[in-house]
Specification:
three-stranded antiparallel β-sheet; alpha+beta; 390 residues; seven-stranded antiparallel β-sheet
């Protein structure tokens, strides 16, 4: 989740009544899986999607897989408001911080290949030209980066980095330059002593993976995308990899007035420069295919996948984060996955073992900076989960 401060943008006016007329499941597109048209919760979930699209969310999209009923996917609202282009499950969505789970798998693949040790200092892998900017880097291990216990400062909270974004909002910066902004910042705590989510952890992991593989994005494609047949998943495959026609436009209710503005160029520039902690885009069904492949041990050995579920606790003693996975618990149900939020998108990917159910849902509204509309996106998530799982 990226903290990026931006100046005011022009506001787009639109008639939200039109949302109710754009209910769209799989009409006109092939989501690349066999959809169960008799899915028992289809009507209820579709009603929720339509309700929230009519209530101001630009577009919403969801995919579900259960062991008992198979695949279902639905969408409502628009992928582009200005042209009234309907949202479908063929649209490509921003994964935002869900990308961290993919990055964790890359590191753990390298661990299985004997190319990385999780419990040695990151200075063993990170070149001095970068590690010299990270105070106590010699006390931070790869595992600490994976589970956010390193204490490394958040680059998105650094005023120098944020000022660069404000002054050049559509510039694609090199994220390695963000590390130098941390030179005068001390760790948030003694490395390994507690948990604190920081995007810098996964930026450093990507830099380490680049040292070992030469190109961590290409390695991800070879070791994750291709084996699982993720034909609609993309990550830095080219300099302009975010220019796919199916990629949804992005909106932000910048004035918190219920009239979101199209900030697509800003969203693209922000995501294009991020690495490790963000950057992947894909269809809703591809996101589930990834998590499903991970759970079914198609990517990692059983013992390595078990490591991902070694949870560290939050300040209240509750399990919160593993190695690239978030621990979820609500209503007596336990699940894991990851959520993601950006200035022009938001999503969540979850697996609930007791229900043998996978869920991915996304909106093309920014949820990073809270607004009344972003709260509706969160309420939609809770309503869909309650309908699907209880």
């Amino acid at each position: 989740m990226k903290k990026v401060i931006l100046f005011a943008l022009s506001i787009l006016s639109f008639n939200i009544v039109m949302f109710a007329q754009t209910k769209n499941l799989t009409v006109g597109c092939d989501p690349d899986v066999l959809i169960n048209k008799n899915f028992s919760k289809a009507s209820a979930i579709d009603s929720i999607l339509t309700k929230y699209a009519a209530d101001g969310l630009p577009g919403v999209s969801i995919a579900v897989f259960t062991e008992q009923e198979g695949w279902w996917a639905g969408a409502a609202g628009y992928s582009k408001l200005e042209t009234r282009t309907p949202m479908t499950n063929c649209n490509i969505q921003y994964l935002q911080s869900v990308s961290k789970t993919y990055m964790a798998v890359v590191i753990l693949k390298l661990y299985e290949e004997g190319k990385i040790n999780l419990d040695v200092p990151i200075t063993n892998y990170l070149p001095l030209k970068y590690s010299r900017y990270i105070k106590s880097a010699d006390k931070m291990t790869v595992r600490m980066l994976l589970n956010h216990t390193s204490g490394v400062p958040e680059y998105g909270n650094n005023p120098v980095f944020v000022a660069n974004i404000i002054l050049h909002p559509t510039t694609i910066f090199k994220m390695e330059d963000a590390i130098s902004c941390l030179a005068d910042e001390s760790p948030a705590f003694e490395p390994g002593s507690k948990h604190l989510y920081s995007n810098t952890n996964y930026l450093l992991l990507a830099m380490i993976a680049d040292v070992i593989t030469g190109d961590h994005a290409k390695y991800m494609e070879e070791k994750i995308f291709k084996p699982l047949g993720l034909n609609h998943s993309f990550y830095k495959s080219s300099r302009d990899y975010l220019n796919y026609p199916a990629l949804t436009d992005s909106y932000w209710d910048v004035l918190n007035c219920g009239r979101p503005a199209n900030i697509t160029p800003l969203q693209k520039a922000n995501v294009a420069m991020l690495k490790g902690d963000d950057g992947i885009v894909c269809t809703t069904t591809d996101a589930i295919k990834f998590l499903k492949g991970l759970v079914e041990h198609k990517l990692l050995h059983d013992s390595t996948f078990a490591l991902m579920q070694h949870w560290v606790n939050d300040d209240k003693g509750n399990p919160i984060y593993g190695l690239g996975l978030v621990h979820y618990e609500a209503g007596g149900l336990v699940g894991f996955g990851h959520s993601g939020g950006g200035i022009g998108a938001g999503c969540v990917l979850i697996y609930v073992p007791s229900k043998k159910t996978y869920l991915f849902m996304a909106t093309n509204l920014g949820v990073l900076i809270e607004s009344d509309l972003s709260k509706k996106a969160d309420a939609m998530k809770d309503e869909i989960l309650a309908t699907l799982l209880f």
